[in-house]
């Protein structure tokens, strides 16, 4: 018998579901006997390499939840697993339950128009900045900001800060959601960006420069990088010397930039603000430094305070020579 163990973030109990015929005409057929058990070490046969989509469907069916009611997450790293990911369920799955509906109570509602959708007819909450937003829209706004690595929530219109506790209440978050996104706020405040995907990560230990990106680490392939130099981690890793960095800049290939079609641009630069080593992989010429979080034009190396200063992302500008560090 195949089994999957999972726990809602707001509960200390672990649920164990037995599953027969994991795949049958594309559907999951869990049995209806669900037992609540204490977390324990046991020699059970666990499902491995099962997609998140199938696991979510199984759990939703066991609890008679409507589709889309849950997410499977990693609370330690602040990750929401995507539907096409495959999980090894040796460990207990962490589940976030979403509310069936986000209804703002009368004492929190306002007649002001929604700052995002002025024609919104759903009840709106009055936010601390003075703007109004429907609960679903507010929840999406919060999660987008936190997924992008921000640790301080702000109104997209007036840029005033929002308090997480206040906004989570007005977004009508479930207890699971409050626990998960509250942890994400904490992780973002001490994390740094993965040089490969831009996701916020943490060091394995405070005195160790070895870091792991859980988003890039899929299906048993662990992606590790150096916290300081952001290069891929190898055994006996040493950060590049100044001479080694200069050699990489001098000998890197040139490329044609997407959108602007600017040719012969060195594919490796150092950030003009902090000196971090950066390689251009795709997208336009505006680059955001993973280290200092400032933006600059990868072609002419002009700093960008509020967007490109040299020209638009589709226009040409002067190609700065290879830098000297």
Automatic annotation (TrEMBL):
Kindly give the InterPro entries that the UniProt entry links to this protein.
Answer: E3_UB_ligase_RBR, TRIAD_supradom
GO biological process terms on file:
protein ubiquitination
Q: Which organism is it from?
A: Mytilus galloprovincialis
Q: Domain RING-type: where?
A: 104-323
The transmembrane residues are none
Give the residues annotated as coiled coil.
none
Keyword Zinc tagged: yes
Question: Could you state a single Gene Ontology molecular function term?
Answer: ubiquitin-protein transferase activity
What does the UniProt keyword field contain? Metal-binding, Repeat, Transferase, Ubl conjugation pathway, Zinc, Zinc-finger
Q: How is this protein named in the record?
A: RING-type domain-containing protein
